[in-house]
Amino acid sequence: MAKKKLNRFWALILILNPIASLALGLWVFSLPGTLGLVRWDSFYRLLVGLVLSLGLWAPVLWVVGRLFLRKRKWLAKIWGVGVAALSAAILAFTLGAWGYLIAQPMLKSGDKPPVLLVSSHSGAAMPDLTLAVWTKTPQQLTASLGSETEPTRSILSDSGRVHRLLFPKLQPERVYTYQLEGGESVSFRALPDIALEGSKPMKVVFSSDVHYGSSKSSAEKTTRMMDQWLSRKDEIDLFCLLGDITELGFMDSDWQDALDSLSPVFSQIPMIPVIGNHDLLFQGYRHYLDYLHPEGRTSFEDLYRRVDIGPVHFLLLNAVWGTEDVSREQLAWLEAQLASIPKDHWKVVLSHAYYYASGSTFAGEPWYDNREMIRIFGPIFEKRGVDLVVSGHNHLLEVLEHAGVTYAVVGVMGAPLDTITYRSPASVWCRDVHGWMEVTWTAREATLQFFQWDGVPLFSQTLTK
Ligand SMILES: [Fe+2]
Ligand SMILES: [Fe+2]
Question: What class does CATH assign to 112-137+195-464?
């Protein structure tokens, strides 16, 4: 009787093997970013395939034993014990891996220091800025905000963990000072409105792909670049960080690294972040939304949004590998937003994934001129008169042109550089060097300047309206 019960137990474990693997596979492929991972990286394609095939190993070995070892009883017994042990180990591994992946986006390592974000906004008025902070213990935070010509205002956050302290109705170019919880005074300059007469031009720095948490990233160069931007904070109005901020976005330790490093600079210079494939994977986007969405939204669809700064309009897309996770809703939204912008205004699209780009073959796939991205987005950009499209993902600096649209790739804020074995026919200038792009906007001109990590100017080009 006891033997029968034991046999039933092991039979159940054996049956659960393929069921658990199938369920894990369905769950993994229901997550944003997984299709892109297996599409673009043959190593992970193999790894994911191997893990998901585990559920079949023990049942197949059991069948082999039944077919070929019936007459050798002692061998069949040993075989049976081995298959039972293997099936238990595989089931434990599958459930353990699943639990680990589910838990990671919910585990937070500690408080996250403040960053100053530009709020989502469309319209003629200037966008508000938001101080984004995350605390492990639920609490209410207070900030005081003032300027030389305005009385100090007190600003309260919600009583939770995700804090968004809104700095509203800021006067363009005015210098403000804030104190968070009575701490150190921090000053920043409000964004300029280049539509106003006498406005200074708007200077925006673009870079991406630090991959915080990766031992292969060049932390020294990242720090050197950020030090230069901070020393020029009277001149730089805005920083756009185009994704792959972290190496493993589902691990909170990588976000802790990232925010500890970014906060000293970008609590003083306003920032617009965009999500990358490394940030998004295995629900890493939940950490990203907690820390870097200016309105503290929580849904995957909140990863694309619009920010208008006077007559310069930024459309932030959620395209991380390529078109794999781009929804019809997002495309319809992009068309509608672009159609609503006056013709003589600047239309700027930001996404992590690139369109036209030089590069090389990586893990068996062509990491250059992304055909699907060009096919889906190219006609929209051309029809709607997009002026500039800036991306990361490829770790190089490049400017390209196609059908009246200028493209730039800036994935060079610290991650290992890509080798360039393929030069895109659309390429105007390209270098495999760490650095950044700076764009200086007036109502009629946008000057693109590319810099090496130590501040050496590399290339410049002017767009006119
Ligand atoms: Fe990257
Ligand atoms: Fe990437």
Answer: alpha beta
